[in-house]
Each structure stands twice: as C-alpha cells, then as structure tokens.
Amino acid sequence: MKNKINSISDDIKQLLLTGQETNIQLAFQLSIGLKGNYSEEVAQMLRKHLLLCFATGVEKDYFFETDTLDLSGIDLASIPIDFGQFTQLKKLNLAYTQVSKVPSGIFDLAQLEVLNLEGNSQLKKIPQGFADLENLQELSLAGLDLTQDEVNAIRHWLPLVKVTF
To answer: Other CB atoms closer than 10 Å to residue 65's CB: what's the count?
Structure first.
C-alpha cells in the first residue's frame, strides 16, 4: 500500500510540475483521494495553488492553522472565503485582490496583528469594525480612494494602530 501511495505522490508531483491547468486539477483530484497521505514535498507544492486548496479542501488544516496568509494579487472578487475560519492568523495580506468590501470573517480574527488591503481601489467603505480587532498593530489602506473625513474617522477608531494611507 505504501508503494502505491508513493507512486501516486510521484504522479502528483509530475502533474504539478507541468504547470498545465488540466494536470494541476488532476493532481488535486488525486490528492483528495489520498486524504493527506502524501509527502511534505507534495504538500508544499499543492499549497502554492491557494484557490484550489480552498475550493477542494486539500491542505485546509495547514491554512487554518497558519499564522500568515498571503493572497496578494489573487482576484478574490468572485471567490468567497470565510476568513473567520483562520483563527490563528496574525498577518493577512489582501493587497491587490480586487475586493470591493471587507471580506466576511475579518472581524472575527482575534489574533490579527497586520492587515494589508493596499491597492484595492474598489474598496469604498472601511467599516468601524476594525476597532474591535484588539491585537491589530498595522493596517495598510494605501491606494484606496478615501476622503479626508474617512481617514480622520479611521485614525479615531484606531489610535494605537499604524495605519498607512
């Protein structure tokens, strides 16, 4: 049985290395069938395909237990991710993700220290809920089209947080 798993793990690696979308999809289907019984090398390769990991549940425990998540540059506008599940997150990078509102669950991240929303020009409203993030130390809102009144309100809500506009 172990030899068969090793053989399938090798197949998964080869499929992922091709970089072809069809092969990557197939690699994920094989990974689902192995239920996590593959090498750390395969796991690391799979994790590079974040959206497929979220969509298929592959490596979900890794992501839910990690303290840093970098989704910068990935178009999240049409992909709902419940960030509230990432209870261990301390650093979340959502720069240039095309979000138009603060994603669901962000305000449930009690451990969150750093949040980057830079470059999301479609994000028009910054909710006061950020004030509830007791551990928040840094918030990047650079590249957002905020009025001076909104900037002043955010500074008022977050007097101890380093906010960059």
So the answer is: 11
